[in-house]
From TrEMBL:
GO CC terms of this entry: cytosol
Post-translational modification: Acetylated. Deacetylation by the SIR2-homolog deacetylase activates the enzyme.
Protein source organism: Paractinoplanes tereljensis
Keyword Metal-binding: yes
Name of the protein in question: Acetyl-coenzyme A synthetase
Catalytic activity line of the entry: acetate + ATP + CoA = acetyl-CoA + AMP + diphosphate
Family matches, as SUPFAM superfamilies: Acetyl-CoA synthetase-like
Length: 656
């Protein structure tokens, strides 16, 4: 497959001079890492405190099963908490927590150490030990981070399940990992009211005989049913001893299992281990966000149930001794200004969020962020989906006031940490491009035969060399691990002896060699013999001033093989009633044809109020394709709001 390269972008944004001069990472690190990749990673591993040094950096003798920092020992929680306290920074704020109803908590590193130690003592008393699995099903409250760190501290492997998931999703994840304990809460606040979690856990636990105990945090105070497996957090953890000595674990000790978002199908239980994972999350959090732990206030808006929450709320920032904001609720509670109010209140300097939120903010209108003082911001990040160039520009302009670098970070649950991203003090970024692989990472864009495509070409995104925070396997399913990631190219496909990781995403390299992510390979459309990415057409649509967000799919077509069907959310101020709506769809079809060429002109455009998204906010194009092809819908269990699909299907029928 070679992907058409239709979208061209000429705007570039070099780093602000002062930021470049003071940056944690300078341009020289790319060559340093190229010269000796393993030496570069060994140097990064020294950011951490190891109780026993490693003998060898990488063991790749049994590919695709990697081992990093072999023989080394460390404790993840010690690295994230204790050592900052020991270094005299115990009074530094680790977490400024903001509850949805407006209640707050401030937790210093010294207090975090106490909480994590108490939780570790309680887990031990409940019979949880090294290697046991613990399911965590919590809202965005500090106890979520405490629970994860307590597991890490005693060597138990956590499996965090997003607090919005159903009984079925929770119980299958508990069963897959054979977990012994669930840590949950009575509920959490969502959209202005308490939303219960405990009943879901009760039903799930009834299906999971492996669970011996359920630890329940009281957050909302709502009534809960009680079984003899249940223990209150405040009657156990908060009464437990505050001293706990962290034991070292092997660098390859399992740290956590996390199931992928399920955008493309059944989630996979991704296994991450200790030393390599913490090395790369710590390194990337320092490099990509240029973190200055003494002065920055960092805020990542992800949920702890996703990998972004694991790597860039818990392990990366805390290992670096950062001060961060953690927010419990939704961006529109009590009003659509909540995010900007939080940035203003805590003087957030680094903000890391997702394109879905940026496009939602675009839809809500520029005047909302304009009402707040956002001058503390100095770096903006994006993750989760390709960011359309116009959304990137909107983010930089309306949130960053044209001063802040925007880092578009490409990575996956499987990669554990950021892999492709600008460096804010080095890279002249282009809106919509993740730019280049970080130092020490070898990303490539290849054709069907694993040959690198030349500049100007498009194809498959692959990773050619193992990296420290790579997944070690799919939990309990080595075969699926090999089949999914290693069997498309290279040795795993019977071609040569190089093991090549296939990410599942399409990408292109522009004339300067910068990398542009073009969405899932499975979503690529075949129009009259041309492979066209959904991302480019969506970006062309979003570049129209009336459009906030769009999703594009290829639907079977008798003449062209597939034809482009686009679903478009107009910006808040756009009139779409009657003829105005008709006219807008005509204009948009022409706009795309003008921007990308006639081949990319959508056959049909539907104006919609919402798009189907996963719980992590990613567009589920496969469902839209089902609609466009008049099929019944596939698996909808990871869908955020199933009513959206009913509305879209009804709309589709009336427009033939
Ligand atoms: P599943 O694998 O179960 O379908 P998922 O791929 O959505 O779920 P994640 O691991 O959360 O689960 O998401 C990783 C994917 O998100 C990447 O493979 C890519 O498609 C997309 N992605 C993440 N960041 C970016 C980015 N900066 N630019 C483009 N795409 C991105
Ligand atoms: Mg994926």
């Amino acid at each position: 497959m070679s992907l058409e390269n239709l979208y061209s972008e000429t705007r570039t944004f070099p780093p602000p001079e002062q930021l470049a001069a003071d940056a944690n990472i300078k341009a020289g690190e790319y060559t340093e890492a190229d010269d000796d990749r393993l030496a570069y990673w060994a140097k990064q591993a020294e950011r951490l405190t190891w109780t026993k040094p490693w003998d060898e950096v990488l063991d790749w003798s049994n590919p695709p099963f990697a081992k990093w920092f072999i023989g080394g020992e460390l404790n993840v929680a010690y690295n994230c908490v204790d050592r900052h306290v020991e270094a005299g920074r115990g009074d530094k704020v680790a977490i400024h927590w903001e509850g949805e109803p407006g209640d707050t908590r401030t937790i210093t590193y010294a207090e975090l150490l106490k909480l994590v130690s108490q939780a570790a003592n309680t887990l031990t008393e409940l019979g949880v030990g090294a290697g046991d699995r613990v399911a965590i099903y919590l809202p965005m409250i500090p106890e979520a981070a405490v629970a994860m760190l307590a597991c890490a501290r005693i060597g138990a492997t956590h499996s965090v399940v997003f607090g919005g998931f159903s009984v079925d999703a929770l119980s299958t994840r508990i069963q897959d990992a054979d977990a012994k304990l669930v840590i949950t809460a009575d509920g959490g606040y969502r959209r202005g009211k308490p939303s219960a979690l405990k009943p879901t856990v009760d039903e799930a636990v009834a299906l999971c005989p492996s669970i011996e105990n359920v630890l329940v945090v009281r957050r909302t105070g709502q009534d809960v049913a009680w079984t003899d497996k249940d223990k209150w957090w405040h009657e156990t953890v908060e009464q437990a001893g505050t001293e706990h000595e962290a034991q070292p674990f092997d660098s390859e000790h399992p740290l956590f299992i996390l199931y992928t978002s399920g955008t493309t199908g059944k989630p996979k239980g991704i296994l991450h281990t200790t030393g390599g994972y913490l090395t790369q999350t710590s390194y990337t959090h320092n490099a990509v966000f240029d973190l200055k732990p003494e002065t920055d206030v960092y805020w990542c808006t992800a949920d702890i149930g996703w990998v972004t929450g694991h790597s860039y709320i818990v392990y990366g920032p805390l290992s670096n001794g950062a001060t961060q904001v953690m927010y419990e609720g939704t961006p529109d509670t009590p009003g659509r200004d909540r995010f900007w109010q939080i940035v203003d209140k805590y003087k957030v300097s680094i903000l890391y969020t997702a394109p879905t939120l940026i496009r939602t903010m675009m839809k809500w209108g520029d005047d909302i962020p304009a009402g707040y003082d956002l001058s503390s911001l100095r770096i903006l990040g994006s993750v989760g989906e390709p960011i359309n160039p116009e959304a990137w520009i909107w983010y930089r302009k309306n949130i960053g006031h044209d001063r802040t670098p925007v880092v578009d970070t490409w990575w996956q649950t499987e990669t554990g940490s950021v892999m492709i991203s600008p460096l804010p003090g080095v890279t002249a970024s282009k809106p919509g491009s993740a730019m280049t692989a970080l130092p020490g990472i070898s990303a490539d864009v290849v054709d069907d035969t694993a040959e690198s495509v030349p500049n100007g070409g498009g194809g498959f995104l692959v990773l050619r060399e193992p990296w420290p925070s790579m997944l070690r396997t799919i939990w309990g399913d080595d075969k699926r691990f090999i089949d999914t990631y290693w069997s498309r190219f290279g040795a795993g496909a019977g071609q040569g002896d190089e093991w090549i990781y296939f990410a599942g995403d399409g990408a292109k390299r522009d004339e300067d060699g910068s990398i542009w992510l073009l969405g899932r390979v499975d979503d690529v459309m075949l129009i009259s013999g041309h492979n066209i990415s959904t991302t480019e057409v969506e970006s062309a649509l979003v570049s129209h001033p009336s459009v906030a967000e769009s999703a594009v799919v290829g639907a079977t077509d008798p003449t062209t093989g597939q034809a482009i069907v686009a679903f478009v959310i107009p910006r808040g101020n756009v009139d779409t009633a009657g003829d105005a709506g008709e006219q807008l769809t005509v204009d948009l079809r022409n706009h795309v044809a003008k921007k990308l060429g006639p081949i990319a002109k959508p056959r049909q455009i539907m104006l919609v109020a919402e798009l189907p998204k996963t719980r992590s906010g990613k567009i589920m194009r496969r469902l839209l394709k089902d609609v466009a092809e008049h099929r019944s819908l596939g698996d909808v269990t990871t869908l955020q709001d199933s009513a959206v699909m009913d509305l879209i299907s009804a709309g589709m029928k009336t427009t033939k």
